[in-house]
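Continuing the batch. This is chain 6 of the set; chains 1 through 5 are on the previous pages. Same settings as before, nothing changed between runs. Recording input and output for traceability.
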Amino acid sequence: MTYEIALNKAWGEIVALAPYQKYTVKFLTDIYEVKIIDRTVLMRSSDAPASEETSVLILRYLIGILKHGYNQKGEWISFKELRGGPSYYPAFKKNTIKPILKSLREDPDSLIKNLTGRFGGKLVEGGDVSIELVTFPDVRVKFIFWFGDEELPPEVIILFDRELAEIFTTEEIATLMFFLVIALLANKLDPVLELNLTSIIGTEL
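Output for chain 6:
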């Protein structure tokens, strides 16, 4: 399957880079143990293997950290401002923006509650509601929501710290956000859309 190519590539890179044989990484609400010598990514709470998709994202994060480190610049940018962002934006809009907008229209209270409760997002200033969500350590994503009215439709803007582009490629950021949407809107997505995650990871990373 296509994700196996991306996973093997990531393991090959991290084996060459990593000075240690074991790393601990928090991703969203879970903590994972990355064992280089065994080529395994395990959830600490259950010692169960992470999914291939999750493993690829965690490994790409570690590779970026090992190569560049991560120091937030405090400068928020949109997806279109990323390198090659305009070219990838149609797919990003389809896979990420539109599902969130659909949830915002249909059940905004559940969407906000999920972001702040289940995923621990922090309410900040901006829009009708704005939330900063930590994905990987210190890697924050900002969601700015407008609920809309009779004249204007609802809107969502997603922003990233500019430094994120130093550890993730634009394709990897798109994949990270698509993964987050699937986790956030579980059981509310078109099954075909969910299957696209494997395709994106396998062909773009």
